[in-house]
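Much of what follows relies on a compact textual record of a protein's fold. A record is reproduced here so that you can trace the correspondence yourselves:
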Amino acid sequence: MTDIATVTTAPLTVVTLPAEIDMATAPAISEQVAAALAPGVHAVIANMTATTFCDSAGISMLIRAKKRAAAHGAELRLLLPCPNFLRVLKIQGVDAMLPVYDSLEEAQASPWR
C-alpha cells in the first residue's frame, strides 16, 4: 500500500508522493494524481520532497500525468528540492516538459499557464 496524501485548495491540489516510486507503486500514484484533476483545479503539485527513488515506471507515470492534466486544462508541477533526483530528470529531458520548483510556496505562487 502506498501512502499518498492529497490536499485541495482550489485552484491548486497538492499530492504528496511516497519515498519510492517504481513499477509497483506507480499505478496507485497515477490514480491519485488523476483523481486530483477535479473540476476547477488548474494545477496539481506533485510534492516529491520525500521521494528518494523513482525508476523509469515512475518517470513515465509523471509524463502521462502531465498529458492527462493538459487534457483537463490543468498543469502538473513538480515540487522537487532533491538535486540528485532533479539531475536524473534533466538527463531524461523531463525537466523541459514539467515545471520543477524548489519550494511549495514557489509552486503555489507560479501563475497558471
